[in-house]
Amino acid sequence: MAPPKAKPIPDVGHTRKAYQGIRQMLFHNEIVPGQKIAYRDLAERLGMSQTPVIQALKWLEFQGLVRHEHHRGYYTEPISIQEVEEIYDFREQIELALLPQALTRMDALAIKKLQAALDAHLKASREIYLYDRLLRDMEFHLTLASLSGNRVQHQTLRLLFDLLYLKYGGNILFSTSMDKADTAHKELFNHIHDNHLAGAKAVLSQHINSVKRHVLSGLERLMKEKVKANV
After folding, report:
1. Is the pLDDT of residue 9 over 70?
2. Are 67 and 92 part of one and the same domain?
3. CA atoms of 168 and 63, how far apart (whole Å)
4. In the chain, N or C: fewer CB atoms in 10 Å?
């Protein structure tokens, strides 16, 4: 399963391949928070020279997914509970702000598109492969945001998902309750279908905050376990 799609980078060929390959490693938690990134090893794994790997890491640095230290190389950032909380708060602001616009543009074709995203999520949520379920969950929210017609906020929302899914990887994703997400998505869709803005806002806000609580709780447990392990 490929990682979440991102805005295309300007380079082509090996740099693009390296960029997508590193994103996939981040998504699948093969590169974890707080880790030094050995670009020589990445080049070997990706079957290419170090130059396109370094160029890809520069682009990921620009996106805030990795950092570069002079004369030391590239690193992933350690887990930051504050950053994760801020991401979810910003995500809620964007999604709630886009709802009224989406409802005013919600014709039969838009409903059909959102229904397809919901069906894909519900089907994936019954399967074992968690990464697929997470991607379908993300695509449902991005589909709804795209129906607002606001491209800038839609792209910003996609970048927030990148921060969560790539910067933190499996350390954060496995905290999410998928059963609750199923119910929330169905309720949200029904309110949108009935053009009930207040109900849609209430469900969406509760859903995002519920996921945030699950994730933050999981991260706090993870960090406590690491502290105990290092004692």
Report:
1. no
2. no
3. 14
4. C
